[in-house]
Amino acid sequence: MIKSILEEILSGKELEFDKAEILLGAGQDDLHLIMRAANIIRKRFCGERIDLCSLINAKSGLCSEDCKFCAQSVRYKTGCEVYSLVSVEDMVSAARLAKKQGAANFCIVISGGGPSKEEFEKIKEAIEKIKTIGIKVDCSLGSLQIGMVKELKSLGIDRFNHNLETSREFYKDICATHSYESRVSMVGMLKDVGVEPCCGGIIGLGESPKERLNLAFALKKMGIGCVPVNILDPRKGTPLEYVKPIEPLEAIKTIATFRLILPKAIIKVAGGRESGLRDLQAMAFMAGANGMIIGGYLTTKGRSVEKDLQMVKDLGFEVK
Ligand code: SF4
């Protein structure tokens, strides 16, 4: 069964939902076969290059939205750092460090539904300066008006991150203040303007395997080429504080299945890599992943960049 799925994908056929469901429901005995298939597909369609990116949380906390997984919502007492937009110089120095550490892309992220006019002007100034230091610039600024997206495009940003977070069906269980549709239409707007969306979600929120697959198939339908896969690190004070974390092998099986659904996409292991995969992090890259965030996340530190780069080298990947 797994061999025939592999042959079908290699021949250009798309993985069907019912077959993806069988893969995600497979037991541990089949996991190494699924991983092997995902690795072959990654090699065939994406090669040996790994996409490393780094980010700055340029405005932390202060978000009025209610995403139940998020430490930055003002509705939850999580003790996360709270600060308004950092200076242009801070954004530029963080980008310099990211470049020095080996990241190909640097993402400016702010919490909240979208920047004010003043914040947007500062971010634009930072983008212009960062472009001169020779690293690609991405943004994750919430929902924007089309005029702002056009301005970012004219500044030459590489990608704009806007995640679907989870499946359409499960979304109502994690967020009530803005809709799944608004997320889909923001991604559609990015595509219309010609800015590449970076769009993925979080696994381990309490969604069913079917709902997890629905996320992957929605991303496929939208033609997303860069898919961050976050693994929930249940944060104290959030409504998801007591959700049972996804098992590392289940997360790896999910990543492998996502690769088989999205053969050509960059599948980027994002937030929660260290806590969600623990000592099995390298296995994710032998199961179809070909990207990761280095140098820490929005409200949590990652492991050292040196360890990540050594892992990339040991796995035989070339850094993009
Ligand atoms: S995920 Fe974004 S929009 Fe949702 S609460 Fe966190 S910062 Fe706000």
Question: Which characteristics define this entry?
Answer:
44% helix; single chain; TIM Barrel; binds iron/sulfur cluster; alpha/beta; ten-stranded parallel β-sheet; 320 residues
Summarize the structure.
This protein is α/β, with parallel strands linked by helices. The chain has helices spanning 2-10, 17-24, 28-46, 88-101, 117-131, 146-155, 168-171, 180-193, 209-221, 248-261, 273-277, 281-285, 305-315, and strands at residues 49-59, 105-110, 136-140, 159-161, 196-198, 201-203, 226-231, 266-269, 291-293, 318-319. It has a single domain (15-319), classed as Alpha-Beta Barrel (TIM Barrel).
Q: What is the CATH class? A: Alpha Beta
> Any low-confidence stretches, pLDDT <50, length ≥5?
none
Can you give the mean pLDDT? 97
Distinct bound molecules: iron/sulfur cluster
CATH superfamily: Aldolase class I
Largest sheet properties: 10 strands, parallel
| Strand-residue proportion | 5-15%
Assigned CATH architecture: Alpha-Beta Barrel
Order of helices and strands: HHHEHEHEHEHHEEHEHEHHEHE
Number of β-strand runs: 10
**Separation of termini?**
34 Å
Shape: globular
Structural class: alpha/beta
Q: Helicity, in percent?
A: 40-55%
Radius of gyration, CA atoms, in whole angstroms:
19 Å
Number of separate domains: 1
Could you tell me the CATH topology label: TIM Barrel
Number of helices: 13
